[in-house]
Amino acid sequence: MGRGVDGVLSPPVVRGNDWSVLADARPAEPPTVSVVVPYYRAQAQLDLVLAGLAAQTHPATRLQVVVADDGSPEPPGVGPGVVVVRQEDRGFRAAAARNLGAGAAEGDVLLFVDGDTVPEPGYVEELAALPALLPDALVTGRRRHADLTGWTPERLRAWFAGRTAPEELTEPAWLRQAGSLLDADDRSYRFVISAVMGTSRALFREVGGFDETFDGYGGEDWELAHRLFTAGAVLAHRERAVAWHDGPDWGLRGDDPVAARREKNAETRSLARLLPDPAARGVGGWWRYPDVVARLSPGSDVDATVLGVRSLLAAGLDLQVWGVDPDLLDGDPRVHAGEPPAAVLARCRTQVALSGPLRWAPGGLAGLVERVRPGGVGRLTGSVDGVQVEVAATRALRRCARWGVDMSTLFGEAVVDVPAEPLGQHPDLAHWLPRL
């Protein structure tokens, strides 16, 4: 146990994403938990969700329920003690509604369950345990599917007491493929769904919650999961935290295939602008939030600076450069003066720092970036004739800074031979440019 940035005890050491040391652990006392339920004009389904939350094994005195209404014409009906917050109806705004509910949350652990997804009695206890022990954790539960048409809270309670269960529908294969997420990688955000999700309230607020520019179905949970993972979150899948979605999975509803494809394409476009995943972005194009942020100390030689920036941009990466006057590169939108904005740093997976311009060998920088992906080390350092180079995973930088621990403790680091050469003073542009 170390000391965090605020002087409080840090959580148990979890290297990379291996949380197996905590797999069966439970906090000494139950944490305070807030469950946020987004809602819109579905009182019968909400009644079942609230009945499920009232039947939790987690102590009721340490459980707060917040219903976040996305502009229903009439407020939802809830029982005593349930908090209701409302926003005006401006279309489908589930991301904003969840943020509104989280703003009213008081528990140390923040859980989400959708307004049509009924938690089993052990849901809160199972999902909240890891974030209570490890405030960096982002945990997704298991969403199963059933036909709950016509069900009542009384019938639900009878089911939980061991009587007749509902008809179970097909569980989507893509969710079953998540496994434990002990070996989570850059694309494991795809297994995190806000219908059954939990983290610490502190971490949720640190990253700013859901991105409220999402104003349609889907995508906001994947974007948040990617941003949390980039912030150093430990991803985990708790299969014992089960909640039942009323109806089939989106992909199994049998909707019109053309309309369904358009809906998924819109989700992909929304994600591509915010999430630097090559699978969403493809090859080429300019993006406001790059995958790799490079900081370059340009030095006094303009020609060397221009060639150094050109070499970075030619590395075959989704990369942008900060610290250089963009007018030197004819206003290239990938080149920026000053420091990268916080919103850029919140999304980039890798950060590169150079104390001077270099000419990179083909594939050289891309190879170093690959070595700091999940499963590799957190940071690489090296030098070439006095030019200092650092290549680091943003998630490693963020988590180590949060808890005030060395990189070697949580992710590891290595000294490398840098596959580049210095440009020196006044290089010959006519000679160097064709070779980039």
UniProtKB/TrEMBL annotation:
Molecular function via GO: glycosyltransferase activity
Transmembrane segments: none
Domain Glycosyltransferase 2-like: 34-167
Keywords assigned by UniProt, alphabetized: Glycosyltransferase, Transferase
Gene3D superfamilies named in the record: Spore Coat Polysaccharide Biosynthesis Protein SpsA, Chain A
A matching Pfam family: Glycos_transf_2
Pathway where it operates: Cell wall biogenesis; cell wall polysaccharide biosynthesis
Domain Galactosyltransferase C-terminal: 189-232
The keyword Glycosyltransferase appears for this protein: yes
Highest taxon of the lineage: Bacteria
Family indicated by similarity: Belongs to the glycosyltransferase 2 family.
Protein name: N-terminal domain of galactosyltransferase
Organism for this UniProt entry: Klenkia brasiliensis
